[in-house]
Amino acid sequence: MTKGLFITFEGTEGCGKSTQVKLLTERLTALGHHVHTLREPGGTPIGEELRHTLKHSQQNHAMTAEAELLLMNASRAQLVREIIRPALDAGEIVVHVMQPAVRAYYNLEELWSLPVAGRRAKPPLPAAA
After folding, report:
1. What is the C-alpha to C-alpha distance for residues 30 and 50, in angstroms, rounded to an integer?
2. What is the phi/psi pair of residue 87, to 5°?
3. Rounded distance, CA 92 to CA 94, Å?
4. Residue 19 above 90 pLDDT?
5. ∠ CA 116-119-120 to the nearest 5 degrees?
6. pLDDT recorded at residue 33
7. Pick the CATH number of 5-120 from 3.20.20.70, 3.40.50.150, 1.10.10.10, 3.40.50.300
8. What mean pLDDT do residues 102-127 have?
9. CB-based contact 79:88 (threshold 8 Å)
10. What pTM was estimated for this model as a whole?
11. Where are the beta strands (DSSP E) in the chain?
């Protein structure tokens, strides 16, 4: 069985991720590869519902940072289980547009102060100056 290939583009809004994904997908398809192009949040029916809630719902103004992080990760979990893992197992190519790193994107410093297994969590990387 051929191993699949997972390619991801990460960056801020408007940096050209979609343009690069489109060019790469067109090239890989022209070469005869089966390519899945995905985005986060989204990419599955459940993920698209979560995307709407996170990005467009007028009702989410009071959403806590923790709730937003959990919804983002719920969308990602669904995407991995439903699309990414089966495609890679079938030897296909997945081109994935990710939101910037969660900590930077959400600025979730407060999450690092939450107790984890009886002690305070510490950020995995130092905060940017």
Report:
1. 32
2. -65, -45
3. 7
4. yes
5. 75
6. 94
7. 3.40.50.300
8. 48
9. no
10. 0.71
11. 5-10, 35-39, 93-98, 115-116, 119-120
